[in-house]
Amino acid sequence: MNMQKYFAQLVGFEITGFHFENDEYALEPFPVFTLTKGKETLKLTLSMDTEGNGGGFAFIEAAS
Length: 64
Hints:
mainly beta, 34% strand, globular
């Protein structure tokens, strides 16, 4: 999978919501962000790994 292309599709979207979502098979709840661009809406869910074993962690850093 081309990860550059995969994540680049998020460019231009704005985070408009956030919540935690439980899953019966996950170890931890998933952090879920709602993103919008015009009339398009996406749900961005952070996971520990591609198998979805639980919620993950994202590094949030200042950018210049």
